[in-house]
Amino acid sequence: MSWHPHLWHPTTQVASSPAPLAVKQARGCVLELRDGRHLIDAISSWWVTLHGHAEPAIAAAIARQAQELEQVIFANFSHAPAEQLATRLAALTGLERLFFSDNGSTAVEVALKMAWQWWRNQGSARSQLIAFEGAYHGDTFGAMALGDRSIFTAPYDDLLFDVSRISWPHTHWGDHDLETRENKALQELEKALATPTAAVILEPLIQGASGMLMVRPSFLRAVQERVHASGALLIADEVMTGFGRTGALFASQRSGIQPDLIALSKGLTGGFLPMGGTMASERIYQGFISENASQTFFHGHSFTANPLGCAAALASLDLLQQNPERYQQFESRHTPLLEELAQQKAVKRVRCLGTVAAFELDAGSTSYLNPIGKQLQQHCIDQGVYIRPLGNVVYLLPPLSISDGQLQQCYSAIGSGIKALTD
Length: 423
Ligand SMILES: Cc1ncc(COP(=O)(O)O)c(C=O)c1O
Description:
This protein has 2 domains: 14-54 and 325-422, Aspartate Aminotransferase, domain 1; 59-322, 3-Layer(aba) Sandwich (Aspartate Aminotransferase, domain 2). It contains 14 helices and 16 strands. The protein has helices at 44-47, 56-66, 80-93, 104-121, 141-146, 178-193, 217-230, 251-255, 282-286, 307-322, 325-328, 330-341, 371-382, 404-422; strands at residues 23-27, 30-33, 38-41, 97-101, 128-132, 164-166, 197-202, 206-207, 213-214, 233-237, 261-264, 276-280, 347-353, 356-361, 385-386, 393-396. The strands form 4 sheets. The chain has a 7-stranded mixed sheet, sandwiched between helices. Strand 2 (30-33) and strand 3 (38-41) form a beta hairpin. It binds pyridoxal-5'-phosphate. Pyridoxal-5'-phosphate is lined by residues 103-105, 108, 136-138, 203, 208-209, 237, 239-240, 265.
């Protein structure tokens, strides 16, 4: 396969990357390539394919909806799929209002703009924003600014607003000094919160893009206690962790926290259609209702509440609610396979939560550009498994429908790759 003369691929350096694989179709966990090869999609195609590719119930719901109402401007209109989805997500998240956008970055942008303007609508100039080291919230400017600075943001750093940054005390199997790091982070947070703060944003339980870095639920509860005591708003970016990924429907639930705003995307439509959603509390919503037009939330995307996306999301929620054991019990499927892999000397800092299993390859450097990840990726592709390590962090985040045999195949490919690369 060669590079297409008219396409530009995301986060891809053409000078040093192999040309993309040509995919013909996909079903369940398997991608079928044009050349006849089959690959298990072990990372759910950038964490979006929740149940499996071409999931029949979702495909049928989209087809039905396409024949009734495919799109309508959402500024003067409402429709049943949006209303039903909002009602269901409100019940599930504990936040009463749903604002639609198109992807994870915009879901975060919306949460940020809501938090910022909510304070201004009340006549408050609270201007500090707090986020965590290693955070990734998307590629648009507001989301980039909230995220930690990295090779991804470097060309734009001069354009990004300042954020106070707190360390992220992530943990792994056999971690011994976690409490010290958690206490340090909480002290940093307390110090930062002494400055009037508009909002604190975090990826609950798992920071995804920075390397599947997991914190304890009790840490998040301690964060929430301090944030709410200061009056600041808490934003949970559940773009990756939402919809069962951490073993509960939402990571906030599994942590025992109740954020004021939650950003959703990826698994929202079961991975079928690009859609973002920001859940907000009724208190925040009411802060925008005024005779004064300048207090309006002036934000809207052309495809707001796209009915096809809503229909897909409703069908996906049905599947999740009909089969909760699929996400609740996923961790117990990973654990024995991960334990076996952890016997290898190069496998370090193993962690697992819900559907997400990760570890670090002891390969000298922890840089995102560490080549060992790419070498392991190629080995796994040759074995029929698609993974995409983050630097030296190798992880699995498969669709919920993956069979035991397919999961075993993923671990075997990774295991044999590590042996070949590090022995
Ligand atoms: C936690 C988190 N927030 C936001 C985003 C951005 O989502 P999108 O790529 O859909 O813009 C991502 C993407 O990986 C993410 O993991």
